[in-house]
Write a structure and sequence with these properties.
Oligomer: single chain
Strand order of the largest sheet: 7-6-5-8-9-10
Low-confidence stretches: 1-12, 28-62
Structural class: alpha/beta
Distance between the termini: 99 Å
Radius of gyration: 31 Å
Strand content: 5-15%
Largest sheet: 6 strands, parallel
Order of helices and strands: HHHEHEEHEHHEHHHEHEHEHEHHE
Helix content: 40-55%
């Protein structure tokens, strides 16, 4: 049959047959390559992405809304570092108390300075969530320990400040793990501390002074009271009387010019980092702390291993409704020392 077929073909037929074989061969090879190359390219791209943006790959791989575990998050309205940390810590604590999953609803700028590892959902998902408005400041609500009674099995997001350590103190180890500073922040803070100490062996005492925005912003000026200079000078005198020297007071403030006119002793140094997170890490690295007004100093103390924390108790204006509702026992951990109490140094 083959001989008969070949014998019956003319020379032009031989040429056409050869061309057809070559064309079919090229088509077959191109199909194989087309299927193989994209797979290899995809794997290489994933490996490259993991090496440069591992955190984002990890978060993107989590789909917290795809299973049956209800989600807890926050609206994450625009706020400062301290308030934002309260948002995150509280949704973690409330979620853990309710067997739910804490997630972020925004890619927060805070993630650039802290190693927070929580999945991020699309903000548009909140449209289908139940909303809980927490209008109070510095008040703990026990009802959030049973979200099922409030919203059933629905996903939920909070809107409000959630400013109470009682929401998350039961899982403090997880909070401390989530709120670790990135290496660049830690390195800069350590350099600032070393420069302030000038190579001397000293006991480090951090002093946080917040004044600037409280005096300039009309809304916060009415709500908060700045700590008077007598508070700081008295607290520093107490530390000097309780601790053997040499001491070094490291002052962090948004009003360093004012601080330089008040703190005139030789054992005081003034420090300012390139970003707020560096200032917080400096304070969190101190052996003792004196904090004044606001959540920034609060978190500097909570993230620290300080043996003593002294705070200014009267910073909410009781002439305003929110100030009258503020509960110091819900806001300040019991081991911290109010300004009018005797300084007690915790032994490590």
């Amino acid at each position: 049959m083959r001989e008969r077929f070949c014998a019956s073909m003319r020379p032009n037929d031989d040429l056409l047959f050869g061309i057809a074989v070559i064309v079919l061969g090229f088509l077959f090879i191109s199909i194989i390559l087309e299927r193989a190359i994209p797979a290899e390219t995809t794997r290489a791209s994933i490996l490259q992405s993991r090496s440069s943006t591992a955190v984002h790959i990890q978060r993107a791989s989590i789909s917290p809304l795809d299973d049956d575990i209800p989600v807890v998050t926050h609206s994450f309205f625009k706020a400062g570092t301290g308030n934002t940390l309260f948002f995150i810590a509280s949704i973690i604590g409330i979620a853990r108390s309710n067997g739910r999953r804490p997630v972020l609803s925004k890619d927060l700028s805070l993630l650039k300075t802290m190693n927070i590892d929580l999945p991020i959902i699309n903000a548009s998902s909140l449209e289908s969530f139940k909303r809980i408005q927490d209008a109070s400041v510095g008040v703990y609500h026990k009802k959030y320990r049973n979200l099922t009674a409030l919203v059933g099995s629905s996903n939920v997001y909070f809107a409000g400040y959630l400013q109470s350590y009682k929401y998350f103190h039961h899982c403090k180890e997880e909070i401390l793990r989530q709120f670790q500073f990135r290496k660049s922040v830690t390195d800069e803070a350590l350099e600032l501390i070393q420069n302030a100490a000038e190579g001397r062996a000293v006991t480090l005492v951090g002093v946080h002074v917040r004044r600037g925005d409280l005096l300039k912003n009309s809304r916060t000026r009415g709500l908060h009271r700045t700590a008077p200079q007598e508070y700081f000078l008295t607290a520093m005198a107490r530390v000097r009387s309780k601790l053997p020297g040499p001491l070094l007071f490291v002052v962090i403030s948004d009003s360093l010019e004012w601080c330089r006119t008040v703190f005139l002793d030789e054992d005081v140094r003034f420090v300012r980092g390139s970003v707020a997170a560096v200032d917080m890490k400096v304070l969190a690295s101190m052996e003792h702390l004196i904090i004044s007004v606001g959540t920034f100093g609060w978190w500097s103390a909570y993230l620290s291993v300080a043996k003593s924390v002294t705070y200014y108790r009267h910073w909410y204006n009781k002439d305003m409704e929110s100030g009258r509702r503020f509960r110091p026992k819900d806001f300040f951990p019991p081991e911290w020392i109010a300004d009018e109490k005797e300084l007690i140094i915790r032994q490590s």
